[in-house]
């Protein structure tokens, strides 16, 4: 696969890669399912103001025809490739067992102790790279297309509760159990199983109506009053820490709680966790749009302030 380390792949290669994603996710990697990332990115793109929307279109490669969600799983596809192996620790955070807290200085590093190499550090990193977009090409040390795609993906991951999990069980990856009748693990239940079960059982395999339901919940439904608090962020570079803290708290309260390795999780677990999963997808999307509107858009005053301090 080393020779395919190219971004501007043709459509057939892209389809091949999609098969590869399924393969990789099935082999135990940390990853919000393809569906989770796609919904997060679609929600975000639907909330962009015209200026930000224009920049996003401009940064995306032509072959996706302006659709950000088409590339939101790309970082999961490439993380095992030699050229991008450095990006692998950026998808998650390992926190001390049972601490149920995230401390950036203590926890945000890779297995070798290299600082900032965790999903909260990555969101911060790619946000700060995109903040330079408006300064023009002179300060483009980084590839803005890659920064946009990495940010969009990692905003999904930082909101997946089990991506901020305990070290010894690798965020639930080593807690083997059954999901209804098939073998799975606790990490996968949160990455994919709950989403796929909902898609099949509640939405008759129609992802669009699934996404519409999530979107309706924050436009005029149960979560519409919470939108202001979701997007409250005084400093774009420290907010990822807050979002990661939310994740580990949810992982403790709803992910790990009451779960024993080897058991079967089914209806009861699904019913009580479903709306937590969808809310995290919604929050990831809403907050991604908030960031992109601030760094690319016109009308946000606070953006100037953030720029002035970086
Ligand atoms: C940015 O990265 C993408 C993907 O790796 C690549 O295809 C593109 O040519 C790069 N753009 C620039 C300006 O280097
Ligand atoms: C920040 O982005 C650059 C460019 O992609 C990458 O080399 C570096 O490892 C990233 N660091 C973090 C913490 O995300
Ligand atoms: C919408 O919100 C309600 C109330 O929190 C929840 O029960 C329901 O599952 C949510 N629907 C979706 C699709 O998230
Ligand atoms: Zn990921």
From TrEMBL:
An example molecular function term from Gene Ontology annotations: single-stranded DNA endodeoxyribonuclease activity
Keywords assigned by UniProt, alphabetized: Disulfide bond, Endonuclease, Glycoprotein, Hydrolase, Metal-binding, Nuclease, Signal
Per the record, a Pfam family?
Answer: S1-P1_nuclease
Signal peptide positions on this chain: 1-31
- List the InterPro entries: PLipase_C/P1_nuclease_dom_sf, S1/P1nuclease
Catalytic reactions of this protein: Endonucleolytic cleavage to 5'-phosphomononucleotide and 5'-phosphooligonucleotide end-products
Q: What is this protein called?
A: Aspergillus nuclease S1
Q: Which PANTHER family does the UniProt entry name for this protein?
A: ENDONUCLEASE 1, ENDONUCLEASE 4
**Organism from which the protein derives:** Protea cynaroides
**Could you mention a single GO BP entry for this protein?**
DNA catabolic process
EC assignment: the record states 3.1.30.1
């Amino acid at each position: 696969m080393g020779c395919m380390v190219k971004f501007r792949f043709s459509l057939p290669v892209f389809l091949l890669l999609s098969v590869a994603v399924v393969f990789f996710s099935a082999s135990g990697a940390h990853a919000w399912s393809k569906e989770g990332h796609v919904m997060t990115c679609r929600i975000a793109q639907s909330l962009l103001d015209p200026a930000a929307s224009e920049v996003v279109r401009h940064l995306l490669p032509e072959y996706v025809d302006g659709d950000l969600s088409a590339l939101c799983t790309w970082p999961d596809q490439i993380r095992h490739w030699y050229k991008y192996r450095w990006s692998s620790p950026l998808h998650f955070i390992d926190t001390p067992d049972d601490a149920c807290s995230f401390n950036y200085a203590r926890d945000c590093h890779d297995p070798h102790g290299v600082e900032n190499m965790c999903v909260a550090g990555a969101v911060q990193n790619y946000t700060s790279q995109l903040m330079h977009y408006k300064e023009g090409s002179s300060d483009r040390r980084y590839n803005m297309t890659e920064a946009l795609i990495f940010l969009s993906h990692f905003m999904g991951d930082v909101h997946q509760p089990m991506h901020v999990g305990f070290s010894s069980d690798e965020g639930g990856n080593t807690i083997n159990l059954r999901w209804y009748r098939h073998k799975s693990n606790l990490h996968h239940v949160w990455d994919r199983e709950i989403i796929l079960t909902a898609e099949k059982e509640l939405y008759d395999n129609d992802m669009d109506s699934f996404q519409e339901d999530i979107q309706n919940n924050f436009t005029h439904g149960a979560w519409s009053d919470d939108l202001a608090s979701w997007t409250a962020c005084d400093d774009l570079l420290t907010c990822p820490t807050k979002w990661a803290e939310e994740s580990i708290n949810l992982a403790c309260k709803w992910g790990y709680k009451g779960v024993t390795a080897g058991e079967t999780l089914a209806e009861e677990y699904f019913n009580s966790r479903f709306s937590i999963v969808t809310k995290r997808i919604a929050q990831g999307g809403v907050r991604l749009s908030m960031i992109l509107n601030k760094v690319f858009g016109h009308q946000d005053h606070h953006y100037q302030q953030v720029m002035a301090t970086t």
